[in-house]
Amino acid sequence: MKRSKLALGKAIESGDTDLVYTVVLHLKNELNRGSFFMTLQNQPVALSLYRQFCRHQERETLKDLYNQDDNHQELGNLHVQGGYCQQRIEGRVAALQNALDEFYKAKNDFAAKATEEQIKLLRLQRHLQEELDKPYLDLSLHDTVHTLILDGHHKRAEQLYRDFKIPDKRYWWLKINALATRGDWEEVEKFSKSKKSPIGYLPFVEVAVKHHNRYEAKKYAPRVPPEQRVKAFVLVGDLEQAAEAAIERKNEAEMSLVLARCSAGTDSAVAEKLNRARAQLLKK
């Protein structure tokens, strides 16, 4: 045994990774499990290489190594990785529950909270899948809510928003995009009036324009705050209102923005008004 340990030391000194692997695997066959692990503990380079080997070839042995070191963080990571190799949802949830226990032992509150949320999401997705007969498993929280809204399940989407404490701004962006994709402009307008928008009303304009619906976009342009109003009116193609907003704010950059959109034939009156306002502004 002493000769084998000496050979390990020499292999490490040589810097030859293949040689180290050869000696480590020889020691694994020569020593009992406890002695083998103890030998590796005294040789960090060999231990690191053996962990890499186990990560690809012997995950259960890797688990034993982490158990011996009380490395709860890595044990938790292993359980998470193992969970997503499970085909059945019950096996995946059980693995994540084991990971949760390890993360708590590692005092990693962030990882524990994220794992807890994932377990809750998986259970909910299974319920949705069974009830609505549509695949929900393995969707992100964002995509789960988006899909629910697309399919018209607004109350269920609201429930996830509350249960998972989705930030207001994120949820409003998500919802108006999903409703616009669905073409449910009546629901978009209803949502815009449900309470004061935490993202303002320019996103409503932008989303409607993105979906080639300027008629709906024009409804929200007047609700945009003054500092964004020029952009909103330009987006909906109302250059006259955009010019009025820029002149009212006495903002030369905004006036130039609107002028750049004016065409000589159809927008000459708007251009003339802007040029007069710019001239007066420059005199001051």
Describe the structure.
The chain has helices at residues 2-14, 17-30, 33-41, 44-57, 59-68, 72-83, 89-105, 109-132, 141-150, 154-163, 168-182, 185-192, 202-210, 214-220, 226-235, 239-249, 252-261, 268-283. The chain is an all-alpha fold and 284 residues long. It contains 18 helices and no strands. The longest helix is centred in the middle third of the chain and has 24 residues, at 109-132. It starts with a helix and ends with a helix. The mean pLDDT is 88.
For this entry, give a set of tags.
284 residues; mainly alpha; 18 helices
The structure class reads: mainly alpha
- How much β-strand is present in the residues? under 5%
Which regions are unreliable across 5 or more consecutive residues at pLDDT < 50?
none
Q: Give the CA-CA distance, first to last residue.
A: 94 Å
Find the count of extended strands (DSSP E, 2+ residues): 0
In helices, the fraction of residues equals: over 70%
Number of helices in the DSSP assignment: 18
Query: Helices and strands, in N-to-C order?
Result: HHHHHHHHHHHHHHHHHH
Overall geometry: elongated
Sheet with the most strands?
none
Radius of gyration: 31 Å
Mean pLDDT: 88
Short description:
The chain has 284 residues and is mainly α. It contains 18 helices and no strands. The chain is 77% helix and 0% strand.
